[in-house]
Amino acid sequence: MVSVTASETRSRPFLPAAFRNAFVDALAMVAVLVLAGLAVFLFGGAAMQRVVTYAAIMLTAVLGLQIFSGNTGIVSFGHAAFVGLGAYATGILTMPAALQRTALRDLPPFLAGHELSFFAALAVVLVLAVLIGLLTGTPLLRLSGSSMAIATLAMLIIVYTLLVASREITRGSQPFYGVPREVGLWTAVVVASIALLAARLFRETSFGLAARAAADDERGAAAVGVDHRTARLAAWVLSAVAAMAAGAMMAQFLGAFSPRDFYFDLGFTLLAMLIVGGMSSSLGAFAGVVVTIVVVEVVRRFEGGGVVLGFQLPVLFGLTQGVLAVAMILVIWRRPTGLFGDRELDLLRRSESASIAASAEPPRRAGAGHVAADHLSRRYAGVVAVDDVTLSFDTDSITGIIGPNGAGKTTLLNMLAGDVQPSAGSVSIGMPVGKASAFRFARAGIARTFQNIRIFPRMTVLENVVVAARQVEPDLAAAEAAAMRELARMGLEAFADRPAAGLAYGLRRRLEVARALALKPRFLLLDEPAAGMNAVETAELVAILAAVRAERRIGVILIEHDMRLVMNLCERVVVIDHGRVIADGTPAEAQTNPAVVAAYLGSRTARAHMDAKTD
Ligand SMILES: Nc1ncnc2c1ncn2[C@@H]1O[C@H](COP(=O)(O)OP(=O)(O)OP(=O)(O)O)[C@@H](O)[C@H]1O
């Protein structure tokens, strides 16, 4: 459990808490793998050693898939293609030259006669994997969600077709043979161990955090400065590296193979293993491989028929794939997050040793600055949501935006946050942000919360805030300490290690504010921050916002229907009706403005709200 201390620890930790925890988790899984290797090495026969070697190779490939699909939430059917490319590249690079002259007579000269050792070939394959990852990822990741998943399927088919068509290099659909079989148990165990470390640690890097945040809520992630395309590309490239490393080992493990070995069957097996274990964690990938290999080894014995309890079984062709398919369906049905859920081992997080001190460093104060809307309009097929609005907001002030339902308040706020593009006019935030997009606005100091809360439910409460802190603080340990400080401010430190999904409604709203503040913003844009809160919670929120403003001198712009909150907290009130600004002044002026009363306060209840005096 994370504990908070009031002051920052004197000695800086060797590694940020998240990495220490990840490292220990990975070491625990590596220990199990090494012990399994040792057990079959000492006590198992050659057949058992081959099973564990194969399991370690598959583990490397499944971890590759997990790095991408587990962190981004996008299923990939294409990773078998990476395994195939790694296998063929290794086969060509390591095949003895004499054999090449007979088996691959038409091999282009630049590919011929290298005769590399396995590890030299692996190094080349890894470089190749980065290039192939960048080349395939850049166009693929322009798509989103299910279209991206379908595109990975297309990639699998394209690579298969290329392997079959490139006869001079691959022998087409004929078996590619003559690859030296240097990869044994320990090579596979070592490479799989490195893949385990990489997969477990990647989760905690800023790319891993960003990819997971975007998987949970893409708009919410952009609002805390996450560039999801870059994060996904990083995950894709690393996953290609792991999958191609698995392919390199597979080539030398099998010695002979054909394109069919890296097609739908393998793609399905990799996915089945990951889904059975649990897609979202490296623990899931690890467990999935162990469970499915054990099941497959047992089932395989019955595939060719045999006698069980006196009964003669028929030959059951495809029994293993069938059992895997049923296992996958059962898991998806009964346990959608896989056998091992979507949490890592988190060995250190469970103990006191992972305490993170809240940063004592005072957060930066916003300098003078402004956010301005210049003749801003936004139309939606026939509806003019915002109509020619010109407004300017300064730091060190709190402005309330009020107006009837559907007046255009949220649309205006979305444009000020770079989340919605104006149909006409422009937004200036006091510094250049290049192509306007929400993540660039967030990094430039425009933080926001949403009317419908957009936290990252599958991440912990602390991770929710660290994602934001990392966008402005490259040092992870410092980002953790800053995130802890914001959690403590919002009274959430006791929940730091819990999944955010478990928070009650009011606490989720607070978490969203803590997350926004971790961006060290110049402006904080809040869309109905008190919605759904009771009077006590609202009063606490008002006190927190007033304290934040006093401490940091930031500009706060909030949309709110709770007039008591607006009148108590805001120095300026902007009233919007039918997309236009109809009043802009002090709360007292708004209360007595006849246009406001006429346009906004038709009903008696609303008038009663408006008449609420400041406490
Ligand atoms: N994505 C969209 N597509 C089509 N119409 C939209 C879209 N977003 C907003 N609108 C329309 O624009 C108008 C203004 O909506 P907006 O949500 O900005 O108002 P609001 O003042 O925030 O309302 P509320 O107080 O109910 O949240 C409404 O008529 C709404 O239906």
TrEMBL record:
<dbReference type="GO" id="GO:0015658">
    <property type="term" value="F:branched-chain amino acid transmembrane transporter activity"/>
</dbReference>
<dbReference type="InterPro" id="IPR003439">
    <property type="entry name" value="ABC_transporter-like_ATP-bd"/>
</dbReference>
<feature type="transmembrane region" description="Helical">
    <location>
        <begin position="183"/>
        <end position="202"/>
    </location>
</feature>
<dbReference type="GO" id="GO:0005524">
    <property type="term" value="F:ATP binding"/>
</dbReference>
<feature type="transmembrane region" description="Helical">
    <location>
        <begin position="74"/>
        <end position="95"/>
    </location>
</feature>
<keyword id="KW-0812">Transmembrane</keyword>
<dbReference type="GO" id="GO:0016887">
    <property type="term" value="F:ATP hydrolysis activity"/>
</dbReference>
<dbReference type="InterPro" id="IPR032823">
    <property type="entry name" value="BCA_ABC_TP_C"/>
</dbReference>
<dbReference type="InterPro" id="IPR043428">
    <property type="entry name" value="LivM-like"/>
</dbReference>
<dbReference type="InterPro" id="IPR051120">
    <property type="entry name" value="ABC_AA/LPS_Transport"/>
</dbReference>
<feature type="transmembrane region" description="Helical">
    <location>
        <begin position="51"/>
        <end position="68"/>
    </location>
</feature>
<keyword id="KW-0813">Transport</keyword>
<dbReference type="InterPro" id="IPR003593">
    <property type="entry name" value="AAA+_ATPase"/>
</dbReference>
<feature type="domain" description="ABC transporter">
    <location>
        <begin position="371"/>
        <end position="603"/>
    </location>
</feature>
<feature type="transmembrane region" description="Helical">
    <location>
        <begin position="143"/>
        <end position="163"/>
    </location>
</feature>
<feature type="transmembrane region" description="Helical">
    <location>
        <begin position="266"/>
        <end position="295"/>
    </location>
</feature>
<feature type="transmembrane region" description="Helical">
    <location>
        <begin position="116"/>
        <end position="137"/>
    </location>
</feature>
<dbReference type="GO" id="GO:0005886">
    <property type="term" value="C:plasma membrane"/>
</dbReference>
<feature type="transmembrane region" description="Helical">
    <location>
        <begin position="22"/>
        <end position="44"/>
    </location>
</feature>
<keyword id="KW-0547">Nucleotide-binding</keyword>
<feature type="transmembrane region" description="Helical">
    <location>
        <begin position="233"/>
        <end position="254"/>
    </location>
</feature>
<keyword id="KW-0067">ATP-binding</keyword>
<dbReference type="Pfam" id="PF12399">
    <property type="entry name" value="BCA_ABC_TP_C"/>
</dbReference>
<dbReference type="InterPro" id="IPR001851">
    <property type="entry name" value="ABC_transp_permease"/>
</dbReference>
<dbReference type="Pfam" id="PF02653">
    <property type="entry name" value="BPD_transp_2"/>
</dbReference>
<protein>
    <submittedName>
        <fullName>ABC transporter</fullName>
    </submittedName>
</protein>
<dbReference type="Pfam" id="PF00005">
    <property type="entry name" value="ABC_tran"/>
</dbReference>
<keyword id="KW-1003">Cell membrane</keyword>
<dbReference type="InterPro" id="IPR027417">
    <property type="entry name" value="P-loop_NTPase"/>
</dbReference>
<feature type="transmembrane region" description="Helical">
    <location>
        <begin position="315"/>
        <end position="333"/>
    </location>
</feature>
<keyword id="KW-1133">Transmembrane helix</keyword>
<keyword id="KW-0472">Membrane</keyword>
